[in-house]
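Continuing the batch. This is chain 6 of the set; chains 1 through 5 are on the previous pages. Same settings as before, nothing changed between runs. Recording input and output for traceability.
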Amino acid sequence: MKFYSIYGNCQGMIFAEFLNNNPVFKNRYHYIPLNPCNRIKDDEINEFINNEVKKLDLFIYIPINDDYRNDYKFSSNYFLSHVRSDCIKISFPSLYFNVYDRQMTYLTDEEGNQVHVPSDYHDKILVQMFIKYNHLKNNEIYQKYVEFINNFDNFSKTELEEAAISNIRELKRRENLLEKDKRNDHILNVADFIQENYRFQRLFYTLNHPSKHVYLHLREQLFKHLQIENSEADFNPQLDPHTDFVFGIFPPVRKYLGLFFEDHTPFPANSINYNNYLDFYRSFSKVALAKIGVYPLSGKFTFSKNWSEDEKTHRWAIANEAEITIFTDLELSEKYNIFFTIFVIHPQKIRISMNNIYQITVDFSKGESSKGERSSFIPLKVQLNPGENKIEFLSDTPPLSPGEHDLRKLSFAISQFSVVEENEL
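Output for chain 6:
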């Protein structure tokens, strides 16, 4: 009997389920489990390194940054440094595909911790409908939501197609980096499989939760490398662990992406209905809601310098420096809240100032996870003057093209920009 283990994010544990679900593989390899990087503790790592790691004949890993959790011990390199030299080392990149459900967003509390109620995942359009219509009953808000997601004018075919291209290109880049690492005996690639199949099979249930089709493709490659002839049916042919939470795919998204597979998932999701979300949002004061990213969209402002055309949900900066001008009818300076989400598609640091007074620097430059789409909710408390007020954005990186089929030069994007009087909260 040989031994194997997997280290990485939650996708590693799910991949282990698919490996252990196969009788041929299970008869050859005994699984030594490891918790994923976000849950594993010091004691578990020490126990594994001291008593288990030298047993391994096969080590599969998803790259984890050297500075993850501010401790090298949680990195994949730390584990790699302890396996035997003759241990087979297999890797695949952290998998994501933010295309089917671009409405997905995370919320954080006022301490910056992720909100897990009623789910880790929230629907930004449902949030917007709540912000705008929270004086209505839940079923009336939901009706507004349904009208919005069925309106083709609210979605961009170009943006969706470019998102697919951008996501696949980023996965290929990650795969290429792993191919260049001489420590790896083999890389399990998935980018080409996604590119060829995402319109015919649902490959992701949320942006980072692949369906069984992706895991089975990974397993097929692993078996081929290990020369395992798979002659037996899986113990559980229906295994598909991530179906516990699935976002519905909006009708315009289905049409614009040219999706052929059937999908009857309800909106917003299969396991949590709109009442669960809306009741949760209603349980907070306006101040608390604003601190987790649910706030009124208001204020008089213009995207005054170096912005793309309005793409309905966001605006792209087309230079590394951009401005938004806020207008007030004040006679004296007053305190205001400014809220927005800023997101990027390549690593950079963005310095934000208000009327030439420094406010904050948003750092998207650190670690492997800095590559690809990332976002941050920004709440600012500022002093607005009578008349015009300018909020300035300065990136340390020039704008880049998202991909070979998109010739635009883009720096960073802003969505849900809002100027809220302090007394409104």
